[in-house]
């Protein structure tokens, strides 16, 4: 499979390694820091506007290689591509249950474990060596950071960012577009548009739905 990465940063380089590990090839890295398309070795570099031509010409699929959940969503909305144009990339060292599902445009990094009947949405980042336990829901545009532990039956709703090394105990729910701080332990449900930190995690900031929607 030929893959086009949208974004050209450190996170994109990590995703490029994932693509190669799974036996595929990065044929382009597109970012609006480039004004005109050009080739670097065998890889095209250029502005994001080049994506549709490359999809058709190279029979390629796309990954949004940007760590920020809101920016990733904005780019997906801007491109307005069909789901079939997005790749799903799973590192060869990840362990995925046969009964789990992973959506379009999602990336699973090395050492990740996704257990039975877990559902992973579209354009999700499951970062290095985290665990998603059985029967979890991880909705679209979520980023779960390295080393996080998401225990059984947890629901992580749209656009949530779970920080590195955080733990969520069984059956808890994290509302959409919330942020869980690194190392936090979530023992209660977290409302949408909240920032929660600490052991146990406490909400320290809550945005209004109107303010948050304007940022998305």
Summarize the structure.
With 216 residues, the protein is of the alpha/beta class.
Strand content: 25-35%
Low-pLDDT windows of residues: none
Total domain modules: 2
The number of helical elements comes to: 4
**What does the overall shape look like?**
globular
The N- and C-terminal alpha carbons lie at a distance of 31 Å
**Secondary-structure element pattern, one letter each:** EHEEEHEHEEEEEEEEEEEEEEEEEEEH
- Structural class, by secondary structure, is alpha/beta
Annotated CATH topology of the largest domain: UDP N-Acetylglucosamine Acyltransferase, domain 1
CATH architecture of the largest domain: 3 Solenoid
Total number of strands = 24
Radius of gyration equals: 17 Å
CATH superfamily of the largest domain: Hexapeptide repeat proteins
In round numbers, the mean pLDDT is 95
What can be said about the biggest beta sheet? 8 strands, mixed
CATH domain class of the largest domain: Mainly Beta
Task: Report the helical percentage.
Answer: 10-25%
Organism: Planomicrobium okeanokoites (Planococcus okeanokoites)
Protein name: Acetyltransferase
Pfam family, one: PglD_N
InterPro entries: AcTrfase_PglD-like (IPR020019), PglD_N (IPR041561), Trans_hexapeptide_repeat (IPR050179), Trimer_LpxA-like_sf (IPR011004)
């Amino acid at each position: 499979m030929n893959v086009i990465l949208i974004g050209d940063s450190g996170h994109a380089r990590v995703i490029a390694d994932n693509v190669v590990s799974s036996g595929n090839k990065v044929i382009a890295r597109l970012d609006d820091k480039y004004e005109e398309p050009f080739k670097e070795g065998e890889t095209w570099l250029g502005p994001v506007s080049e994506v549709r031509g490359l999809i058709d010409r190279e029979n390629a699929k796309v990954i949004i290689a940007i760590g920020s959940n809101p920016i990733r969503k904005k780019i997906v909305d801007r491109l307005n591509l069909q789901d079939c144009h997005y790749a799903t990339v799973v590192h060869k060292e990840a362990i995925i249950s046969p009964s789990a599902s992973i959506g379009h445009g999602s990336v699973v990094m090395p050492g990740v474990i996704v257990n039975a009947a877990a559902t992973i949405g579209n354009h999700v980042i499951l970062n290095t060596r985290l665990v998603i336990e059985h029967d979890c829901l991880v909705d679209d545009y979520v980023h779960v950071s390295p080393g996080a532990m998401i225990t059984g039956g947890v629901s992580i709703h749209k656009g949530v960012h779970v920080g590195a090394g955080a733990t969520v105990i069984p059956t808890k729910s994290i509302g959409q577009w919330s942020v869980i701080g690194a190392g936090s332990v979530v023992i209660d449900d977290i409302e949408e548009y909240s920032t929660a930190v600490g052991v146990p995690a406490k909400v320290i900031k809550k945005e209004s739905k109107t303010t948050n929607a304007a940022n998305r």
